[in-house]
Design brief:
globular, 7% helix, mainly beta, OB fold (Dihydrolipoamide Acetyltransferase, E2P), five-stranded mixed barrel
């Protein structure tokens, strides 16, 4: 028995591509960038990794309505690698993260106009949706 679990916190690279399939099935795909910064010989180096994110059902609907390029997200899910044949008949592989849980972490400034004061992400300030909740209608989000 094994464990296939991934947790990512990063920024969305482009607006989600959302498809509505048969039987009201919704799927959203978008790239998510995670970065790590370290010093090597006194020089600051940032390494950015890009992840292909796939969300289904309710999570995809939340992404369609609220996630935009630049949004900061917390994603929990699992890694999946699949293959397909391209137009020239060559086998191609793609590794993606199938999201089971997502929380939006975008910072919200207060009403004073001081953009340096941000509230912590919470269930009151951003939706958190689990895949087990995905079949339920998500229409009373707190913002």
């Amino acid at each position: 028995m094994g464990v296939n679990k991934v947790i990512l916190v990063g920024n969305v690279g482009k607006d989600p591509e959302v498809r509505h399939l048969d039987n009201d099935l919704v799927v959203a795909n978008f790239p998510l960038a995670t970065s790590e910064t370290f010093k090597r010989n006194g020089e600051k180096i940032t390494n950015t990794e890009w992840h292909n994110i796939t969300l289904w059902r309710g999570l995809a609907q939340v992404a369609e309505n609220y996630v935009k390029k630049g949004s900061q997200l917390y994603i929990e899910g699992r890694i999946r690698t699949r293959s397909y044949d391209d137009k020239d008949g060559n086998k191609r592989y793609i590794t993606e993260i199938i999201g089971d849980n997502m929380q939006m972490l975008d910072r919200k400034s207060d009403n004073s106009g001081d953009n340096n004061n941000y509230s912590k992400p919470s269930k009151q300030s951003a939706p958190e949706v689990n895949e087990s909740d995905a079949g339920q209608e998500v229409d009373d989000l707190p913002f």
